[in-house]
Design goal:
single chain; alpha/beta; Rossmann fold; 7 helices
Length: 179
């Protein structure tokens, strides 16, 4: 990591925020969450932005959030948790790649879909992009497209399925220390 932030990327519900906090504590650096920053900057959650103006509006705020972190960090170390749709935001991903070493938290389809369904039950609704007649098939298409992008765009790939957040944070920490 030397003097560069680390950004955790991957699909929705991979545990990026939790792992970012744990990793930042291990490394003794601050953690940031782009979804939280989007809400601070826009006054709306990423889900509200997507519901209001689709992915284009959400991606424009996501890019602004990443640019804000770039300016705020100015070369200082940190751990950044990104949103699950970053793979579909080429502009935001390009800014992030210049800012941070990108870690892809690779989690299998079934685990993620189960987590999305559990979250939807708690929230009372599926995310807007999965409200069609076959949300599992819709998520499969998104999963297949985005995981290819994450796998090719990221500097480090961590197989996260079957591991707890502390174990994943430890694995990333060891990799960063020893390469």
């Amino acid at each position: 990591m030397k003097h560069r932030p680390v950004a955790l990327t991957g699909m929705k519900h991979t545990g990026k925020t939790t792992i970012a906090r744990l990793l930042a504590a291990r490394l003794g650096v601050p953690s940031y969450d782009t979804d939280v920053l989007i809400a601070e900057l826009s006054g709306k959650t990423p889900r509200e932005l997507a519901d209001e103006g689709g992915s284009e509006l959400m991606h424009s705020w996501e890019t602004r959030a990443i640019e804000t972190l770039r300016d705020r960090l100015a070369g200082r170390q940190a751990v950044i948790a990104t949103g699950g749709g970053l793979a579909d935001n080429a502009d935001g991903f390009a800014v992030l790649k210049k800012l941070a070493a990108c870690v892809y938290l690779d989690t299998d389809f079934d685990t993620l879909y189960d987590r999305i369904e559990a979250s939807a039950q708690r929230d009372g609704r599926m995310p807007s992009f999965l409200r069609g007649p076959n949300p599992r098939a819709d998520f499969r298409a998104i999963f297949d497209r985005r995981t290819k992008i994450y796998a090719t765009m990221c500097d480090i790939r961590v197989i996260a399925g079957g591991k707890g957040p502390a174990e994943i944070a430890s694995e990333i920490s060891e990799y960063l220390r020893h390469g």
